[in-house]
Amino acid sequence: MNENLADLISQKLPQPVFRLIQGAGRAAAVSSQDLYLVGGVVRDLLLGRPSSDIDMMIEGNALQLAATMSSKSDKKPILHKRFGTATFKIGDYRIDLATCRSESYTYPGALPTVKSGNIKQDLFRRDFTINALAVCLKPGRFGRLIDYYGGRQDIENKLVRILHAKSFQDDATRIMRAVRYEQRLGFKLEPVTLKTLGRDLNMLDTISGDRLRHEIILWLGEAQPEKILKRAGQLGILSSLNTSLAWDPLWKKTFPTARKLSKGTQLTQLYFALLIYSLDKKQCDTLLKRLGVDGGEFSEIAADTLKLKYNPEGLDKSGLKPSEIYARLSRYSKAAIQVHALCSSSLHVRRNLKLFLDKLATEKTYLNGKDLMQMGMPEGRKVGLILARLLAARIDGEVRTRADEMRLARKLING
Ligand code: CTP
């Protein structure tokens, strides 16, 4: 079948992106090299899904092609000379240009040994047939679909299929990618792939903490990560990643609610806090260690989530002054607070946290440290204490205007 995607490409991609791709195909042909669109963009074009990450592979020299294109147009690429690749950016679109290569793995989980190769070899080193499709960009054959491994049929049949039996052993992150695509696209794992995945679960041990963390963040970046987590739980992927991890039925409700409620907090962090909320301290430590999380934002979110879980700061009662709620929560990360506002079994905790998130967290004083110093306050620790006192007064409605605040500040400075 000689399917041609030229019309689809010109309809679905913005004209400047289309022109760049077309121009690249022409420029490559001048030096007798063939250029292809590959991977996710081809899959997404066929599925009618948007895709702003575009990969082009050349049977030849990517940097040379980038230089030729750059000399003929105002679109200047970013060159990654060490990797022999180039990136063009057009609006939200990122177009990567690389050289076709063949890969072999010396041992499971190793970085591959790479040699330059042709498009067939380049497609063969990929994870799934649906990601191993290419489109020829050569003038005269522009738009022709290249399908060596049956990806077109698998898209038709909604199947995620590996290209060969050693695929998950070569790169076990593909186990995590498999469920990500399956759930994102509403596909199924093809039966042999499913069986191979089960056989190779222990290969996840070969993956470094950094790579594992990256894949989990990709899970959490999907539209409905709870579906991926559920499936990963069913297939034994979660427990193989780390003994602490298991599907928590609570996530079926809390993830969608988190999506609806997340105001400002980045969803990935919120989802991560939801994962941690299901664990105890020891399980959390084991997981963080496995993911190579040591310090930084994720450490903080995890620590805060568990601190609030085991010691909700005396917030499980009514009648607290808003400033007391503020004082108890202001040092916690927002994601940890939001998760407890969603999951705590105590109505009072939920109410107090919600008040903090909806109102108190954004309260500000009219005056700042500089203002206090202009009012005669010497520099020092007391400036911070007075500002905190002013904020508490404002949060409790004791002062409403700037003049009120100045009066109180004067009293505190002199007192
Ligand atoms: N790839 C692979 N094995 C991996 C990672 C990537 O074979 N472990 C290949 C796949 O062919 C994939 C391409 O590299 O299509 C680009 O990877 P990535 O950007 O992660 O995936 P996309 O297909 O662009 O999909 P997504 O929509 O998830 O970004």
Which terms summarize this structure?
single chain, 415 residues, alpha+beta, Beta Polymerase, domain 2, 3 domains, 7-stranded mixed beta sheet, two-stranded antiparallel sheet, globular
Walk me through what this model shows.
There is one protein chain. The chain is an alpha+beta fold. It has three domains: 6-156, Beta Polymerase, domain 2 (2-Layer Sandwich); 242-362; 369-414, no CATH class. The protein has helices spanning 6-12, 15-30, 40-47, 62-72, 119-124, 151-156, 167-170, 173-185, 191-199, 209-220, 225-234, 237-241, 251-261, 267-277, 281-290, 297-310, 322-329, 334-343, 347-358, 369-374, 381-395, 402-414; strands at 34-38, 53-59, 78-80, 85-90, 93-99, 101-104, 113-116, 134-136, 145-146, 159-160, 188-189. The protein has a seven-stranded mixed sheet with strand order 3-4-5-2-1-8-9. Bound molecules: cytidine-5'-triphosphate. The site of cytidine-5'-triphosphate has 10 residues, from helix 8.
Summarize the structure.
This protein has 22 helices and 11 strands. It has 415 residues and is of the alpha+beta class. It has a 7-stranded mixed sheet with strand order 3-4-5-2-1-8-9.
| CATH fold-level name of the largest domain | Beta Polymerase, domain 2
Strand coverage percent: 5-15%
- Count of distinct structural domains: 3
Radius of gyration: 27 Å
Spatial shape: globular
CATH superfamily of the largest domain: Beta Polymerase, domain 2
Strand order of the largest sheet: 3-4-5-2-1-8-9
Number of strands: 11
Annotated CATH architecture of the largest domain: 2-Layer Sandwich
- Under CATH at level 1, the class of the largest domain stands as Alpha Beta
Mean pLDDT value: 94
Bound molecules: cytidine-5'-triphosphate
Uncertain regions spanning at least 5 consecutive residues: none
Q: Number of DSSP helices?
A: 22
Share of helix among residues?
40-55%
